[in-house]
Amino acid sequence: MKRIVLILMALAAIIPATCRTRVIEFENPSMRVYLPDSAIATGRAVVACPGGGYTHLAKDHEGYDWAPFFNEQGIAYAVVCYRFPQGNPDLPVSDASNAIKIMRDSAEVWGINPHDIGIMGSSAGGHLASTVATHAKGDYRPDFQILFYPVITMDKSYTHMGSHDNLIGADATPETELLYSNEKQVTDTTPRAFIVFSDDDTVVPPMNGINYYAALHNNGVPAVIHIYPSGDHGWGVTDGLKYKAEMQADLRAWLKSF
């Protein structure tokens, strides 16, 4: 695998002096890895998939800007800039699952626990993350999932139609829609999940997350879902969410729960 590896020390403008980080850039898949100060590293890691309807990437507020939150907790963090489907849904799925495999293959060198690597996604990136969580096998399968206002289903009655059409096509067969409707792909081996929505989300109906949570619960998979009163869609780690402090507190608590 061709890689570009750049190790940069101490992004002082972003990471506090007490939490120095190393940043590693990869090519194929395009991925940026933020490793926490080894003095506080827990061995846990998270791979993030920004949203963008499978046509672009909100890679700052749904990607890179999350690095301090995780690194300050001693968690390694990576953002994968996956390829867009352009008629082939395997492209983004393979990039995201390969990012998990890279983290696992690098575990010894980077001080990561290979059995504590999660995937995170927002909006369409949440669909990608939940696709990897429900479809990937072996070393490509994450150990947990963090989903922000995720597209989950390809059911036209409540999916995000832009994500549907860009991923599998406007004329997708019912069989393809079923395959990528991740609430229908949950088993008792699907990794545990943290799911977040705003009640007034008009872009991706919260029912995406509710049905996914129900499928996880019904299969005995540990999961939590938080639906905040307002915030609409696409807030990422910005102050656009009135309940940002509560959301981050809920996520910290969940991460400490296992």
Notes on the protein architecture:
- The protein has 258 residues and is of the alpha/beta class.
- The chain is built from 8 helices and 9 strands.
- It has helices at residues 67-71, 90-105, 107-110, 124-135, 161-168, 174-179, 207-218, 244-255, and strands at residues 8-9, 22-26, 31-35, 45-49, 76-80, 117-122, 144-148, 192-198, 223-228.
- The protein has a 9-stranded mixed beta sheet with strand order 1-2-3-5-4-6-7-8-9, with helices on both faces.
- α2 crosses α4.
- The longest helix is centred in the middle third of the chain and has 16 residues, at 90-105.
Beginning-to-end CA distance, first to last residue: 33 Å
Helix content: 25-40%
Strand order of the largest sheet: 1-2-3-5-4-6-7-8-9
Radius of gyration: 17 Å
Element pattern in H and E: EEEEHEHHEHEHHEHEH
- Given as residue ranges, the uncertain stretches (5+ residues, pLDDT < 50) are 1-18
Share in β-strands: 15-25%
What is the molecular shape? Answer: globular
Overall pLDDT level: 93
List how many beta strands DSSP finds: 9
List the total number of helices: 8
The major pleated sheet works out as: 9 strands, mixed
* SS content category: alpha/beta
